[in-house]
Write a structure and sequence with these properties.
- The complex is a heterodimer of chains A (about 525) and B (about 325).
- Chain A has helices spanning about 1-30, 40-75, 80-85, 95-105, 110-115, 130-150, 155-165, 170-180, 180-200, 200-205, 210-220, 225-250, 270-305, 310-345, 345-355, 365-380, 390-415, 420-430, 430-460, 465-470, 475-485, 495-510, 515, and strands at about 75, 270.
- With about 525 residues, chain A is mainly α.
- In chain A, helix 2 packs antiparallel against helix 9 (about 180-200), helix 6 (about 130-150) runs antiparallel to helix 9 (about 180-200) and helix 16 (about 365-380) packs across helix 17.
- With about 325 residues, chain B is an alpha+beta fold.
- Chain B has two domains: about 5-85 and about 150-230, P-loop containing nucleotide triphosphate hydrolases (Rossmann fold), CATH 3.40.50; about 240-310, Beta Barrel (OB fold (Dihydrolipoamide Acetyltransferase, E2P)).
- In chain B, the strands form four sheets. Chain B has a six-stranded mixed β-sheet with strand order 6-7-8-3-9-10, with helices on both faces. Chain B has a five-stranded antiparallel β-sheet with strand order 13-17-14-15-16, with no helix packed on it.
- In chain B, helix 4 (about 135-150) runs parallel beside helix 5.
- Chain B is globular and about 70 Å long.
- Classes of the chains: A mainly alpha (about 525), B alpha+beta (about 325).
- The interface of A and B includes residues 423, 425, 442 and 443 of A.
């Protein structure tokens, strides 16, 4: 029995990373580079587009993320509490919804042309630059959230030093404040770029062929699993280069944390023209990243008001229950994993925990392909369709893809519990059951809740894995939106989009609120 | 008296064997005594307590608690089956349970028994409060009440006084001793503070580098340390002039074994006087050799000549 407990964490980790292993094993055993499965011109196109989107998005995400984070962490100005929230909220939008709204905003007889009174006016954004802008609008909050914490924890002694040395504000920013936030910025940037790589909805709609589009084309278009796997492996190389780069950069700039313990510097109250300039800048960013997408959705909702499809509520219910159950399963497994590796530690446990976190950096389409391989293999061995197109397969994909997102908050929670509490429960407690239910679950409640909310947001926005693996005719609200947009009935997508964004926005606001943060 | 805890040849190494934290340690603790393990940090004392409680697994050896073998080559009972209880360094009270729930945590004791322990430790008025709402002293009593509720064979105290400022520390120390004696518990106390050790203990074991160097009553180990390490660890010493030497062996004495006064026949010049508030530390020079002593006399002046004598019963030499 005791031995089984030690095996729990390693086996969980192995299970979670199984779809990724399946891909590798299949690739090594059956990889095929014949012309049919390895078309060089397409490959070059995918690589060129993916790289260009990555670089462009990196630039724009950094620009938006760092400026908003610095403004929000260091200044008090007109409307600053409102803007500090407005900069988080784009996270509630799946990138593809922002994309649809902008297409609607700029098209012939679209909202902008109506506002301008020039019906023929059109700005064509259905190109790679459009993709870069849209993905950046959707992903910059990752940098904003992490860098804001870093900028806000600059110690007052650093600020005093800057004023003693009489550095100009610009010089102080470049030489002192920005480097102090490097680790947070890199971490946020990598999260954003992983999401950029994972995006399917936006690039597909905008007609930009990246690797993730290629994976779908070869699987859905040509039914060519081998090519899909080849493409997945290429994309994985990009992912690993990114991860490696981030690890190197983070190791290089580790000097930061020493300054965080001291008294925090107070925010600067802006007056006069500075107040106006920063307010206008904030308003501009919030307009572009939040108000326009939200405004367009509300306008379409108004157009559609008398013809609303009430079945949409059914999609919402499905999404809520699927995501709720999946999130619960994932967070429960994350809790079990961290608990097991804390009380029954082993070297395999540490290794497998690292492995289980791989999925977060791997695009949903690849995880989906890995699951397809697994379910095909199992179904073929059984001689009947058991797992293919089942909920188990879909939840498994979510588990592999998003396990790392939940284990972060669980680990964070456990790290706040003193080791002596562990000892006390061993000495005075009776068994694991009592320990879990009377001590650790109650102590971990806020962390589990925040892990649950993070999962909920990620799952609600998820498109590629759901598209690949959903049970036949089981449409989530995200899929319904995607279908409406693909059929060019954009204004009809407003109602489901608003419902989806409504639920994720609630989750984002909860995560940001004292209710979850304050009780830690 | 019979031994409550017997430890035989307990051995433990960390870091793939490179650090020895328990080197064939053997000793026993008698029923009703407060036994202290005194040592610097890294001496292995905390690991010893953790092995005794089952929180750490020894490499080899044998541990008996009461009549029960709790660890040997075949047995390794978990902490909650060893008849022990621990008062942790930071008390480790569960923050989300109130005081009464904290004390009753994991115990099968009845409500009346819980109440009785709370009354004896004078915390019955705090039953519905939470740990963060009570003082450090009260937290110690709660930790103690939780530990003694199920009447363990032995109570383990893991430096419970170490993070407390000096003033409160003296009060808590007195309270701790009173409670332990009141309940008649056998206790193993771990500390790095010799003052706490002297105050609380019936017997003290001095530990360093995984070895137990000496076991004895506080007076024995202070006045008759068996190694130079033990002697220096417990207080300052004089290395006495050559004429005191016994054969080849150097002879030492404690500073408080040197008596000062005009009536004593050895004469010396006062070279330095250091004021410590409640006493003086005086450095004497006698025939080009230095001897130090304590004094309460504030009429002494540097440069004066004074008589001194060394208590012949308190000379220290090592085997």
């Amino acid at each position: 029995m005791q031995k089984l407990k030690y095996a729990l964490a390693p086996s969980l980790g192995l299970l979670i990373s199984l779809p990724i292993f399946a891909l590798f094993i299949y690739f090594i055993a059956q990889g095929d580079f014949s012309v049919a499965n390895f078309r060089v011109p397409e490959l070059l196109l995918y690589a060129k587009n993916t790289l260009f989107v990555l670089l462009g998005a990196a630039f724009l995400v950094l620009l938006l993320g760092i400026s908003t984070a610095f403004i929000s962490a260091r200044f008090e100005y007109f409307g600053s509490p409102f803007f500090s929230l407005a900069f988080v909220l784009p996270l509630a939008f799946p990138a593809y919804i922002i994309g649809y709204t902008y297409v609607g905003f700029f098209e012939f007889h679209g909202i902008l042309s109506t506002l301008l009174g020039v019906p023929k006016f059109k700005l064509d954004i259905l190109n790679i630059y459009g993709v870069i802008a849209i993905l950046s609008f959707a992903m910059f909050p990752y940098v904003y959230i992490l860098a804001r914490v870093s900028f806000a924890s600059i110690s007052s002694t650093v600020v005093e030093l800057v004023s003693l040395k009489q550095l100009s504000p610009l010089k102080a920013f470049w030489s002192v404040y920005l480097p102090l936030a490097y680790p947070a910025i890199f971490a946020g940037l990598v999260l954003s770029l992983m999401e950029v790589l994972s995006d399917y909805g936006t690039v597909a709609y905008f007609g930009v062929d990246t690797f993730s589009v290629g994976i779908f084309k070869s699987w859905f278009g040509y039914g060519n699993l081998k090519e899909a796997i080849n493409l997945s492996m290429m994309l994985l190389v990009v992912v690993f280069v990114l991860m490696f780069g981030e690890a190197r950069l983070r190791a290089k700039f580790r000097f930061i944390s020493s300054t965080h313990s001291a008294k925090k510097a107070a925010k600067i109250k802006l007056k006069g023209w500075r107040n106006v300039v920063i307010f206008m800048l904030s308003l501009l960013i919030a307009t572009v990243t939040l108000f326009i997408p939200l405004g367009v959705l509300l306008y379409w909702f108004y157009l559609d008001f008398h013809t609303l499809e009430w079945e949409t509520l059914g999609y919402l219910y499905r999404t809520l229950s699927l995501n709720g159950i999946s999130s619960l399963c994932i967070i429960a497994l994350a809790f079990m994993m961290v608990y097991a590796s804390r009380f029954y530690p082993s070297r395999w446990g540490v290794l497998s925990q690292k492995l289980s976190m791989l999925g977060y950096s791997i695009p949903g389409a690849i995880v989906g392909i890995g699951i397809l391989l697994l379910t095909n293999f199992i179904d073929q061995s059984l001689g009947k369709v058991v797992l293919g197109g089942s909920f188990v397969a879909l939840v498994f994909a979510y588990l592999t893809r998003y396990f790392a997102a939940s284990i972060g908050s669980v680990e964070n929670g456990f790290s706040k519990i003193d080791k002596s509490i562990d000892d006390a429960t061993k000495v005075f407690g009776t068994d694991d059951f009592e320990r879990i239910f009377r001590v650790y679950l109650p102590l971990m409640r806020p962390y589990l809740l925040s892990g649950f909310l993070i999962l909920y947001i990620d799952l609600a926005k998820e498109l590629p894995a759901t598209l690949l693996l959903r049970p036949f005719n089981y449409d989530t609200i995200a899929i319904r939106i995607y279908e409406l947009a693909s059929n060019e009935i954009l204004y009809k997508s407003a109602f489901p989009s608003l419902l989806l964004v409504g639920t994720t926005a609630i989750a984002v606001l909860l995560l940001n609120s004292k209710f979850v943060r304050g009780r830690r | 008296m019979k031994p409550i805890v017997t430890i035989e040849n307990l051995h433990k190494r960390f870091c793939k064997g490179s650090i020895c934290v328990a080197n064939e340690v053997s000793f026993s603790i008698q029923e009703g005594e407060i036994f202290t393990i005194l040592g610097r940090s890294g001496s292995g004392k905390t690991t010893l307590l953790r092995m005794l409680s089952g929180l750490e697994t020894p490499d080899s050896g044998k541990i008996c608690i009461g009549d029960k073998v709790v660890f040997d080559a075949k047995t390794n009972l978990p902490p909650n089956q060893r008849d022990i209880a621990i008062v942790f360094q930071n008390y480790a009270l569960l923050p989300h349970l109130n005081i009464a729930q904290n004390i009753a945590f994991g115990s099968k004791a009845s409500k009346d028994e819980v109440l009785a322990v709370m009354q004896k430790t004078k915390i019955d008025a705090l039953a519905s409060k939470y740990p963060h709402e009570i003082s450090g002293g009260q937290q110690q009593r709660v930790a103690l009440a939780r530990a003694i509720l199920d009447k363990p064979k032995i109570l383990l105290l893991d430096e419970p006084l170490s993070n407390i400022d000096t003033e409160l520390r003296a009060i808590l120390r007195a309270e701790l001793k009173e409670m332990i004696k009141l309940f008649g518990i056998t206790a193993l106390f771990i500390t790095h503070d010799k003052e706490d050790a002297f105050y609380l203990s019936d017997r003290i074991a001095i530990m360093d580098g995984g070895d137990i160097l000496q076991i004895g009553t506080p007076k024995e180990i202070y006045n008759h340390p068996t190694t130079l390490y033990c002697a220096n660890f417990l207080g300052k010493m004089n290395l006495l002039p050559k004429r005191f030497m016994q054969g080849e062996k150097e002879v030492y004495c404690r500073l408080d074994a040197v008596r000062l006064g005009a009536k004593f026949k050895h004469k010396a010049r006062i070279n330095e006087i250091v004021f410590y508030g409640n006493f003086y530390e005086v450095t004497l020079e006698c025939e080009n050799e230095t001897v130090m002593a304590y004094s309460f006399d504030d009429s002494l002046r540097v440069g004066d000549t004074i008589g001194f004598e060394i208590d012949a019963n308190r000379l220290i030499h090592f085997v």
